[in-house]
């Protein structure tokens, strides 16, 4: 048991009085709904994008080994970037981020498809289309 000495004041902290009133919301849904949404840019169709990528490929004067070696390096870099984007997608919150997740999924698909189309166009331009085992290794 603790005894208190007579004549000494306690050293308790005095609390400030509680304010009466409402707590201010940090998210105002009505203002968010009224805010102008950014207009999406007109997306290029998949067919148009493939044609543009295939047309931009020109003969680089590389040997078959150099071309394939460069493509292997580019493919590995693309796979690393896809893995990074997938991790970013995984870190997004479960609710309220559907559009962001869809955008990331679309970026991933475009990266893979663009790389595949460009590599096949380069092989065609070099006259090496369909030769060698690498065409089978380009799994998405």
The helix fraction, in percent, is: 55-70%
What is the CA-based Rg, rounded? Answer: 30 Å
Shape designation: elongated
Tally of helical segments: 5
* Low-confidence segments: none
Specify the structural class: mainly alpha
Strand coverage percent: under 5%
How many strands, which pairing sense, and closed or not: the largest β-sheet?
none
How is this structure best summarized?
With about 140 residues, the protein is mainly alpha-helical. It is about 55% helix and about 0% strand.
Characterization of the model:
With 140 residues, the chain is mainly alpha-helical. It has a domain of 83 residues. 56% of the residues lie in helices and 0% in strands. Helix 2 packs parallel to helix 4 and helix 3 packs antiparallel against helix 4. The protein starts with 28 loop residues before the first helix and ends with a helix. The mean pLDDT is 82.
Describe how the helices and strands are arranged.
Elements: H1 29-34, H2 46-56, H3 64-91, H4 98-126, H5 134-137
Descriptive labels:
140 residues; mainly alpha; 5 helices; 56% helix
